[in-house]
Amino acid sequence: MELWPIIILLLVISSILLVISFFVNNNDDGVLAEVAEYTLQMTEEIQALKTRITQLEKNLGTPNEEITVKKVNDITKKQVLKLYENGKTFDEIADQLTLPETTVELVIDNHQDSMDDSDRKD
């Protein structure tokens, strides 16, 4: 029986605090405005960095994929094709010949394209 007065008192206090919480001014608007401003600043900085990178790439003249394939000599191309025909993966060929994997892929793709073109002519 002694618990009922304590329970009722706690319910009354919680009800009063709940009603007071509705009338207290929330400062969430300030936090939301700060987050929005920060997000906008970050977006602008990222866009500026992307623009700079694009300009630098244009100024430096990023290498074209075809140039990379032309730099690989005929002997290396034959080695790449032979290893590929033996069932090696691009990664294994690149490791064995110390070439970038993209170069290996380009050599094989160009060879397959040239084979497709010669098949079409026949």
CATH topology (fold) name of the largest domain: Arc Repressor Mutant, subunit A
Q: Roughly what is the average pLDDT, rounded to an integer?
A: 83
- Any idea how many domains? 2
- Estimate the global geometry from the Cα principal axes: elongated
The helix content, as a percent range, equals over 70%
Described by strand count, sense and barrel closure, the largest sheet is: none
CATH architecture of the largest domain: Orthogonal Bundle
Portion in strands: under 5%
For this entry, give a set of tags.
6 helices; elongated; mainly alpha; 122 residues; Arc Repressor Mutant, subunit A
Structural account:
- This protein is mostly helical and 122 residues long.
- It has two domains: 39 residues; 57 residues, Arc Repressor Mutant, subunit A, CATH 1.10.10.
- It is built from six helices and no strands.
- The radius of gyration is 34 Å and the shape is elongated.
- InterPro entries: Sig_transdc_resp-reg_C-effctor.
